[in-house]
Structures are given as C-alpha cells and as structure tokens.
Amino acid sequence: MDSPVIETRHYPDRVLTDRHGFHQLLLGLDGALELESAGRLVHVTRGVLAPVASGDVHHYLAPGDNRVVVLDLPEAWCETLAFEELIVGQARRLPEVLVVQGEGLGGSVPALGNWLGLALAAGGRRLAPPRLKLLELLPAMRGDLARPWRVADMARRCHLAEAVFARRFRALTGQSPHEWLVRERLALARELLRVDDASLTEVAQACGFADSAHFS
Questions:
Q1: DSSP assignment letter at 126
Q2: Cβ contacts of residue 166 below 8 Å, gap of 6+?
Q3: pLDDT higher at 110 or 20
Q4: Which one of 17, 82, 100, 114 is most buried, by most CB atoms within 10 A?
Q5: For 137-179, how does the pLDDT look when each residue is reduced to its tens digit (9 = 90+)?
Q6: Mean pLDDT of 76-85
C-alpha cells in the first residue's frame, strides 16, 4: 500500500474478523459499529474516531444500518507525517464540524493530512510546528503561484531540512514539490486562458513561469 485510501462503508450484521498490514481509522457517521481491537472494545457511533493498528487482529459487529468512513493508512505515511498518536492512542470523539469534514474527504490525500492534523489537535495534543507549517504551506503556495518558489524556501518556511521536507511533502501529496507546483500552475493557466483575454506572456507570468517560451 503506497498511499491512503478513503472509503465510506456499510458493515453487515454479523461478526467479521480481519488483520492487515496498514493502519486504519474508522469514523462513525450513522448507526453503530462494535469494534474490538488490541483487547479494547469501542462503540463506534457518530463522531467517534477509532484506531486499528497495523497487524492487530480485530473484530466487527454492526447491529443495524450503519455508515462509517474508513481510512486505510500506510505505516510509512503515518510515520513520516507523525500521525502515529492517532493510531496507538485511544478512540476519541471529534467535534461535529470535523465529522462533517471527514464525511466529505473523498479521495484527497492533502485534505486527509490536514484533517488528521485537526483531529490530533481536537484530542488535546498540540500540533508539532513542522507538520502544521507543512499543512499551511500548500494553500499559501496556491494563493501566490506567481512567486518563484524554491524548495529551499519551502523547507525553511516549514522549519525542516530540505531532504526531510521533500520526503514529507511527497508523503502528503504523492508528488515532489516541483511536480506539485507545476501541476497547480498549469491548472491556473487553463482557467486564465478559458476566461481571460490575457496574452500567453501575461498568463505565463501570472502562473510563475519565467517566460512564454517556458510556459509553452
């Protein structure tokens, strides 16, 4: 498993037993799910975020209609972004605003990383500055794509060494900083070309490309 998988599932009214080589978080939406993992029994109802650690044998039972957001998380991804506390800790109840956000996560890995950071903070643990800065960096870059972003500058803003920053950035987005930046710039360029009368040179400059030849 290389990247997180986000699904909304309905569990049947019978005992299921499972074990897998990745971490898992279950967020209750509707109904109830009985989960036993690592010797702990958790009643997963709306707003309860319950962990299942990689390798743990766990049992499910869902008496009645239910709906659960299931997050399958690679071990290396959790370790890189320092989300292990969500896995090894106790189940927690999230504020309703986070439950609604969790229900709408879809398949966005960056949005998932930001949401998990908020879930950690909601549990009373202060976010580590490097991860918080990394999660804040993406919208800052999107809001100023004309800026000549350099990896060294990005890493410095996150208080991380370049190699560590690049590793965490790829874990969060699935891309290198350069690949992500080019994708975002091209997406903006497509919008500008569709709705604006600007020249190629003006669009290139607005999107952070050095000149129209580079943009072309």
A1: P
A2: 151, 155, 176, 177
A3: 20
A4: 114
A5: 888 888 899 998 999 999 988 888 899 888 888 877 778 999 9
A6: 86
**Please, what sign has the CA dihedral across residues 45, 46, 51, 55?**
positive
| Dist CA 54 CA 25 (whole Å) | 11
SS3 content of the chain, % helix, strand, coil (to 5): 45, 20, 35
Backbone angles phi, psi at 181, to 5 degrees: -65, -45
Residue 195: pLDDT over 60:
yes
Long-range CB contact pairs, 197-202, < 8 A, 24+: none
The gap between the terminal CA atoms of the chain, to the nearest Å, is 36
Structure token digits, residue 149: 């972003």
At a CB cut-off of 8 Å and minimum separation 6, what does 173 contact? 109, 110, 138, 180
Token representation of residue 18: 């499972």
Q: Looking at residue 107, what DSSP letter applies?
A: T
- DSSP alpha helices (H): ranges in 63-176? 75-80, 84-88, 96-103, 109-122, 129-142, 151-157, 162-173
Nearest to 99 by CA among 29, 182, 33, 188: 29
In the numeric block, which tokens belong to residue 139? 């919208």
Interval 8-19 mean pLDDT: 90
Give phi and psi for 99, each to the nearest 5. Answer: -65, -45
